[in-house]
Amino acid sequence: MPGLGSNADDGAAREPVGGGAPAALVLRELTSHADLHEVERIQREVWGLDDLEVVPNSQLRAALHAGGQLGGAFLQGALVGFSYGFLASPHGRLMVGPGLHSHMVAVRPRARGLGVGQALKWQQRSWCLERGIEWMTWTFDPLQARNANLNLRHLGALGVDYLVDFYGPMGGPLGGGRSDRLLALWLLAGQRSTAIVEGGRPPEPPVGARSVVPARQRLAAWAVRAASSDGDAEPVVELSGEPLARTAETGARVMVSAPPGAGGVAAPERARRWQDAFVRTVVPLLEAGYAAVDFAAGAYVLEPVDDRCEAGPTNL
Fold it and tell me: How far is CA 180 from CA 20, 42, 276, in A?
């Protein structure tokens, strides 16, 4: 692919770099001390982190020495974004063998909207597959529709776990409320990501053992809807408790609306109400064998995914 750095092999060159990514975008691994110090600066610039929260260059250096991943995106010779991950053991559903946990992906404000973040994720995928690593995880704020759309629809990842107040109190612009996160699982050698590489849409996951209705005939039930289409919308829980459990037993597709707008919820009190609605609906569905398999019409699409599927997780 034009514009990729010297570390790109033929396999990486066939992968998409994100909608609208400029041809001049160069992707390469970051190794120098200057690179690592610039990663520190980007963390402060993007997230407003103080020195206690920034992952320092010394930690990045140690992680790289031990086999971790650190990739950068350059425009006109300037580092405009980076991705950072470390090796991980299976810590959830569908994870077999060693994987990578992607801890940070950041893009400087002046380079946003160019597909840089998506390009960095595909770069991470190539890095993993070159080393025989077939899955990657990361966490993201479930209230952020833009992130959900990228992770589930454009990358083909699955949402497999809901983590309540995962990071605890956070400082800077990320703080002010409960740090709930959705755990994304990307099966890097599976049909979903491969279909996207080949220019198509990811196939529907295998229907779980508890699903009694074929996927194409499944009716959608709404568990959470937005009360309005503006940024002040409140969540309306339409399906929870025993009715939700009965719906899950049928294997029906369940839709869970996210807050309207790509930016999530600015008011901490309203964000908490959305988080509580997710805990009442998403958590029971995940515990019943569901996963978030797509993001469409402003909502998470949850369907059963059988962890014991005989075809194996690489077919997802």
Answer: 31, 24, 10
Q: Is 77 exposed, middle or buried (0-12, 13-18, 19+ CB in 10 A)?
A: exposed
Say whether both 189 and 273 belong to one domain: no
Distances in whole angstroms, Cα of residue 307 to Cα of each of 205, 212, 290: 11, 16, 10
Beta bridge partners of 28: 72
Predicted confidence (pLDDT) per residue in 175-218, tens digit? 568 999 999 999 999 888 888 888 766 555 443 333 334 454 46
For residue 208, give every residue at least 6 positions away whose Cβ sits within 8 Å of its Cβ, in sequence order, or none. 251, 289, 290, 303, 304, 305, 306, 309
Domain end (from 163, 197, 231): 197
Q: Which amino acid is at 28?
A: R
Q: Is residue 5 part of a domain?
A: no
Is 91 in the same domain as 193?
yes
The stretches of 131-240 forming alpha helices (DSSP H) are 145-148, 191-197
Stretch 131-146: mean pLDDT, rounded?
Answer: 96
Structural domain contains residue 2: no
Looking at the structure, do residues 161 and 310 belong to the same domain, yes or no?
no
Q: β-pairing, 135-140 with 99-107? A: parallel
Of the candidates 11, 20, 9, the one whose C-alpha atom is nearest the C-alpha of residue 75 is: 20
Sign of CA dihedral 13, 19, 25, 31: negative
pLDDT(129) > 90: yes
Domain ranges, residue 273: 215-315
What CATH number has the domain bearing residue 105? Answer: 3.40.630.30
Write out the two tokens for 316: 């997802």
Tell me if 144 sits within 8 A of 154, measured CB to CB: no
Q: How many domains are there within the chain? A: 2
Task: Name the token pair of 200.
Answer: 């198509």
pTM: 0.86
Same domain flag for 144 and 57: yes
Residues 28, 101, single domain; the answer is: yes
Helix spans in the chain (H): 10-13, 33-47, 57-65, 116-130, 145-148, 191-197, 241-250, 268-287
